[in-house]
Amino acid sequence: MKFLRGIAASMLLAFATTVHADEAKTDVKLLYTAASPFVAVYVAKEQGFFDKNGVRVELQLAQNGSVLLAGILSNSAQVGLPTPTVILQAINNGMDLRVFAATNIFPDSTAASLIVGTDSGIRKAADLSGKKVGVPGIGGLLDVVMRKWVDENGGDSGKMNIVEVILPQTGDALRSKQVDAVTSVDPFASRAVESGAGTILGSYMSVIEPGSPAALLTTTGEWASSHPEAIAGMQRALEEAAAFIATHPGEARAAIAKYTSLPLPVLANIPMPNLTNLRLDPNKSLGFWQKIALEQGLITEPVNLTKVVIPFRP
Q1: CATH number for domain 112-207, candidates 3.40.50.720, 3.40.50.150, 3.40.190.10, 3.30.1540.10
Q2: Pick from 37, 41, 55, 221: CA 20 to 30 A from residue 152's CA?
Q3: What is the pLDDT of residues 115-159, one digit of tens each?
Q4: 3-state secondary structure the chain
């Protein structure tokens, strides 16, 4: 009888400990767009690294980048993955935001290209004048970098008609002639080319300074100040995920397939993004993006980058 009571007591203690540990986790809804470079976030979720570090993360797909900040600011989500120029514009407009990790950094082998319709007549950057060009988000990373590349290669970005086209519609938008060209990333860029929807005019990521992040884990200043442990936990989880991806490419591609809804065969030859350093340094990480945002008139004055960046804990 004593033996049975001992077993029962042990089971109750184990259950209580599990419940307590579960209750101690911080719930975080994280908004993302379907793109392979966010694989560290996908793997941190799938392999339990977020849970291990005290954060119960729910990933929620957003149709395009413009939804990300709206979700964070309305508190329908706590964290999002917008691009640096979008964040800088929001801060310049008075929004209180913080960033605490990169999704991936440049240089990056993940393909990002300006794809033109097969019969668009576009053969060089100068041919884009008067043409309709699709971007995932106006003022976002792919938009501003593409404009810079066009201007540096004999074109005039000011003469293009820029419209928004979500990444999964890359090939369809070209085939239906909704646009003459599209800025896109893998796997959508490669898929559009392989299907015959378009050809690559140029890969413009070479204009980005090394060490610059592609997207940032972002939250509000208020949430950051009241949840420092959750932020530190997510930072640790991402680094653990990056280390895991380096030796488990199969599991990484499976995670990409799950969160982008693309079949594994499509992802078989997609290179993994550059995850060598997901930690942020105010000037080294965001200095290039601040410079390009000022040059293109996206922001009216420099942002206090030191205030915006939450460093990793030692």
Answers
A1: 3.40.190.10
A2: 37
A3: 999 999 999 999 999 999 999 988 888 999 999 999 999 999 999
A4: CHHHHHHHHHHHHHHHHHHHHHHHCEEEEEEECCCHHHHHHHHHHHCCHHHHCCEEEEEEECCCCHHHHHHHHCCCCCEECCCHHHHHHHHHCCCCEEEEEECCECCCCCCEEEEEECCCCCCCHHHHCCCEEEECCCCCHHHHHHHHHHHHCCCCHHHCEEEECCHHHHHHHHHCCCCCEEEEECCHHHHHHHCCCEEEEECHHHHCCCCCECCEEEEEHHHHHHCHHHHHHHHHHHHHHHHHHHHCHHHHHHHHHHHHCCCHHHHCCCCCCCCCCCCCCHHHHHHHHHHHHHHCCCCCCCCCHHHHECCCCC
